Each structure stands twice: as C-alpha cells, then as structure tokens.
Description:
With 355 residues, the protein is α+β, with helices and mostly antiparallel strands. It has helices spanning 11-29, 70-73, 121-134, 179-185, 212-216, 220-227, 264-268, 308-311, 313-322, 351-354, and strands spanning 2-6, 63-68, 112-117, 139-144, 148-150, 201-210, 279-280, 283-289, 295-305, 329-339. The strands form 2 sheets. Strands 5, 6, 7, 8, 9 and 10 form a 6-stranded antiparallel sheet that branches.
Amino acid sequence: IAAFDVTTESVDELRDLLQRWTAAAARMTAGQDVGEFGAMDGPYLAPPEDTGEAFGLSPARLTITFGFGPSLFATDDGADRFGLAAKRPTHLHELPHFPADNLDPRRSGGDLCVQACADDPQVAVHAVRNLARLAFGVAAVRWSQLGFGRTSSTSTAQRTARNLFGFKDGTANIKAEERDAVDRFVWVNPANEPAWMSGGTYMVARRINMHIETWDRTSLKEQEIDIGRDKREGAPLSGGKEFTEADFSVTGRDDKPLIDRRAHVFLAHPANNGGARILRRGYNFTDGSNGLGRLDAGLFFIAFVADPLTQYIPMQTKLSRDDLLMEYLQHTGSALFAVPGGATDGGFIGLTLFD
C-alpha cells in the first residue's frame, strides 16, 4: 500500500492521472505490461514504459484498490484545492488522535492511496512501483508499506490466519458469504453519501508496531488473558471451539469472568460496540530492526467500513484506552480514505467525482 500527496494544482492533471492509473491497473491485473510498448519493446534510447520486474510472471490474482483522502477535498484551513469540497464524502475526516497514539506524520494521511494485493509480492510491488512512476510530476509518494500473510480470513473457505503474536486474528471477521452483513457494514448507504460514492466504502489504515521481544517473554497464561482466547485453537476462554460465541457471563472458581473485561476480545466484540462490525483485511509486516536491535514489526491494520464514525472510532477509542494488549502495541501510522466503486468499461476510477 502507498499513499500519495498530490503536487499539482491542476484538476485536469489529477483527472488525467486517475485515467492513466486505471488503464495501467487494467493491464497489470491481466498480467500485461504497462504502456503500449511495455518493458522490452520500446525505443532503445528511451526509458521503458514498464519497469520489467514482473515480466514473465503470472498476474498472481493481483487486485488494485484506490482511495481518496480528506486532504484531497480541502486543506486543514478549508481551502478547496480542486473544486471538489462539495462532493466530500460524509464521514471522510482525519481520524482522531486516540489515547496512546504515537503517530509519525510521515506515515500518516495522504491525498490518494493505492493498495495492491497478489499471491506473489513481486507482482504487488511492481504494481505500486509503476503507478508511482506514472504519477511523477502530479503526485509523490508520502508513505508506503509492504505487508505479508493476511491476518484475517474474509471467506468461510479460508482458515483463520495468525498475527505476529502467534494468535489467530479476525475469527469474528465479516465473511464474504454474509451478504446481509457486507451490505450493512461494508458498502456505504447511497442515501447518506454523494452520488459518486455509490458502491464504495471507507478504508481505515493503521500501522501498529508490536513490541515483539517483550511479548515473547510473557507467559502463555498472560498472553491468553490479554487476548481472551486460547492460543492453540483460538477458542474464547469461556469455552468451546474457535467459532463458538464468546460468553462474557461465565465465571471461574473465584467468581471472576473467564474473559477479562479488558481483554481484546471483550472490548472489540460487537455486543460491546452497539452491534457494529468491520471487515478486516490487514497484513503482518517486518521492516528490519530499529536502533536498539529490536524488530520493527507488527500489524498493518486495514479495515473497510460503511461508516467509520460509528463502526471504528468508538471501538478504537476503547481499545486504545483500556485494552490489555496496549502494553505490547504502539500505533505509529494512521489514515482514512474513501474508496469509490470500481471502474466501468470506458471509465476510470473516480470518474463520477469529476463529472
């Protein structure tokens, strides 16, 4: 994933960039090179149109998702940069500073974002690299992140993946087969949004560093108490299997709840968040080591929601303030983007925003 700052002041150049990005994305998702001549067949004395590192590779089920940040529509002082302020999505505002946040502004925000996902990381990197290249003179990369090993299943056909703490992550995630839940919690309500957001959603992006070494010296008992699930099966500590519904009323011999009221599962559960659910689609990351020799690693959290104001912000406020896991976490990056519906034949991403 990469976020961009738009450097041009021309709305026509911005629109042209989105057209060129859409055309390039269509080719790359089909396993083709970018441009008319691609990586190998252009003029010998000119730079190739495609960087070439994916030449000969399959498309690897590449998908590319685009998003628009709050600052594309208006600056902090309210300036309408491209005449788009009147079409700003209802809930597209910078996320608040949550308790315990330690955000790096160089890893937060952005006018535009591009997320490329593939079975082969080289194909995903190739996609972002070529889109960044096409943006030269119009937009510049603000921050980027390479992730691996999705941390949430999004279909009942998938096994629940594990995060870098070794626990299954996203057991209660919305699944693609839950059509009613997807319609309610993922796609925006057209009645509440500008017309160009029809078929769209909001993307929450949070870079969460994990204190890996501290966690690795923590007892298994404390790890399970903090999560609220057992490490082997992912079952709630109230009993059952992985997908058994957590029962927060079950108590132990000391009459204390088996699932701590500050456990991650308790605080994030829909029952304790007004029934709100989110579609998680995050990834693990490791970016080498820091100056102290510790892993710069964690979870790049991504969630898609119909309404961040009711589905994400209240839940994250509680987690950041009360979650036992916060002893081992630090949120260092934050962004929110509006994701429009997909491009149609002959159109481009965001076409109806400019019409």
